[in-house]
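Quick one:
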Amino acid sequence: MRIQMKHFTLALIFSSLSAYSQQKYIVEKDSIRFKNCNEGVVEAQTDFNNGIYNSFSYGLLIQIDPKFDKFLENYRKEKYGIISKNLGCVITEYSKCYSEKMDELIFIKFGKDIFERSRKEAKKIYKKS
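Output:
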């Protein structure tokens, strides 16, 4: 009888501990939320209105002359306020719409050839240095 009582007591202790541990590790609702296309357009317009000109690219970045690419990035930022960044391979609906709207606004402000033109300008200066 004593052995059965010990087994019952141990079983009761372990079952209460396991029930408590499950309460302790309840997973909360995931807080990650991807923004939608409309939010991307609105934020691009807001950034543009605040003088923030982000030009994002996506995908694998191949750099033939990394020093010039860094020089060009700094040149565009200093002369035009355009911040160029590659954001990798993951494109969300938000980032696609943000980039499309921002590029549209940049082209209106600086001209459709801004990226080609600024590359040529930077190349001339870079070659002199």
